[in-house]
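To the structural biology subgroup,

Please find below the input and predicted structure for Aspartate/glutamate racemase family protein, which we are adding to the shared reference set this quarter. The sequence is reproduced verbatim from the submission form. If anyone notices a discrepancy with their own records, reply to this email rather than editing the shared folder directly, so we keep one authoritative version.
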Amino acid sequence: MRLDTRFPRPAGDAGEPASWGRPVELHVVQGAFPSRIVSSAQALRAANVLPAFVEAVRGLAARGVAAVTTSCGFLVLLQEELQAAVDIPVVTSSLLLLPGLLEGEESIGVLTISEANLGDEHLLAAGVARSRLADVVVQGVDPSSEFATAILGNRETMDVARARQDVVQAALALKARAPGVRTLVLECTNMPPYAQAVRDATGWRVLSLFDAVP
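Predicted structure (tokenized):
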């Protein structure tokens, strides 16, 4: 299920079907613009987007897909409801990797498109224990960066080289804040095209939605 977007999706973007290396059935949820979905838990509830996503996930299940995922990690807030709507696996977000990762590591880094909006409710919805919330180190890209403004502004153009630099700079900022982190989860499904650049810059293991979907 992809948001209603027009911004460029370079190879590796989870919203680009060719990135998956397997057959993909794409369903665009009309009206689910990035500015509506990348929001606080309260704002997402107020936007009343759940019915459209329930309809979408049921439609995909009826067409025989093996699993359903989304193109925005913030949709983890809908994980419980969407999984309850169908009998096939639903993976709304890479954040669902966090509980398992925290079993073996003291802290995990999360790189997000919006640090201001990604809150404890998102982590709790992903299954992170309340006692471990402090062990998840969240870092956002610069809100004024090319990456953030192109995606959240749903622009038709994006300077991919600048976007790559924006994501790497955010990862390095997280490393400076939390030098003990060894694993980074990319919340944003538009970040995987730059995952290798982040690995090269930080030396970290870098995971994304591709690692969460069965």
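Summary notes: Residues 17-91 form one domain. The longest strand covers residues 108-112.

Regards,
Lab coordination
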